[in-house]
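forwarding from the other thread:

> can someone predict this with iron/sulfur cluster?

sure thing
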Amino acid sequence: MKILLVQSFTSPEEPPIYPLGLACLKTVLKENHEIYGLDINVSTEDEYLNMLDKYKYDVIGFGIRNIKVATIRKHANIVDEHHNLIRIAKRVQPDSVLIAGGMGFSLFAEPLMRIYNEIDYGLFGSAEVTFPKLLQNLYKPQKVAGVYYRFNQTIKYSFNQTDDEKNKLVTPDRTIIPVELYARFENAYGIQTRRGCILNCIHCSDKHLLGSNIFTRPVEDIVNELKDMEKIGIKNVFFADQIFNIPYEYTKSLLKSIIENEIGIKWTAWFYEKNLDMDFFNLMKESGCKQAIFSPDSADNKILNNLRKEITSKDLKKTYMLAKKANLRVGYDFMLNAPGETIFSLVKTISFIIKAKLHLGKLLALHGLFIVTMRIYPNTELQKISIEKEIIDKDDDLLEPKFYNPFPLSVFVNLILKIMELLWLIKKLFKK
Ligand code: B12
Ligand code: SF4
């Protein structure tokens, strides 16, 4: 079959990123099919139309990574932009089978299948196993795991993927979209070493998407991929893993192998605050880490417990002590007004940020701080808590972003967010 894979709009606020998911799909599909790719974030609508005019495609797939991305700076509605691309494909190629997938789609698959009525099938979550299977069973979707399909004007869902199906990790084929199109964007190139997470944060949507086990790739494969990336001129990568230092021994052997193979690529990743020591920080530094990002979400022990972070403020303090010693840049993500938050716990978080900044100086930059309120995602414990507390309705599909930010603390929290927004703008102005 001739298949066109389109990376749909990601975020108007964030720089484009290389579509790693499409590259993984090319790897598993190319043996039996002819694969073409286009990323609308680095192409024009005319280029998209030309691509649609060029061949008659049997299948057109849309990668919907982000949905209604809500950050502290902007709340961008890109549901309509995705729809526009889908409608164009339906108009130009009315006989193609249209398939949607990607993590943004998966989080809100049912409401999106209702809105995007041109889409024939929706695929939930990772698709290295399910996409090729669906192509073999194009008119029997009920036989394949993770498929949303239409039957008698209703939307049906086949059945869940197993964890093994969700986590078939392959070496991406980056010929699907030219890598050089992203060279000027920060954090543009992702590389995945593992999938899944064993932690249990109450707001986490990745657990539902990827499962509770961690599946890792062989270290040798990753090192070879990094070598290939280096050969084609990539200088920085982002490890697109849930948590980079779990499993700990696996990560250590990966870092040692990067050092042994003298890979010169710089990298960034998300880290868990536990089990870190100076040896590990030295390995990070020596293997090219340019920034370690932590997502403690709070610095108060009671809130950390409520969020099920399984860390304490002591672990957090250790992160900046070690980073300072290793002279390594760090970033912190915080979520204000979490369940149980009081003015005292908030002050603890703010004073942690101030202490960390004083300690780290330039190693903790303003853009290294990501401070938001908690977005409530479907299939999370936070959703249950929010229903109990009547913050959201039990039938809310959450496609319209909702945040856990109860009154009266919300007044103070919104003020902090405004100040952060202002600082961002001032910084942007100075950069110009
Ligand atoms: C790593 C990561 C980042 C890194 C990316 C680095 C890089 N250069 O790649 C950084 C830090 C830059 C980042 C930024 C953002 N991210 Co992010 N990120 C992730 C994370 C953890 C992994 C993504 C990844 O690369 N996975 C590995 C690849 C191989 O998988 P994949 O792309 O998902 O593709 C698979 C499937 O989705 C599917 N698929 C993909 N396309 C298609 C197409 C078709 C037709 C089909 C059938 C299937 C299919 O098959 C693929 C293979 O299995 C995910 C969490 C998650 N569960 O995925 C969040 C996630 C994707 N990010 C998210 C968000 C919100 C953002 C930001 C908007 C952050 C913000 N400011 O709020 C920005 C947007 C950046 C942008 N321009 O798009 C959300 C998106 C959902 C949503 N809420 O809309 C996620 C899902 C996290 C979450 N649970 O909320 N992110
Ligand atoms: S560490 Fe990240 S991926 Fe793991 S449970 Fe917490 S939020 Fe989810």
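The chain has 16 helices and 16 strands. thats all i got for now
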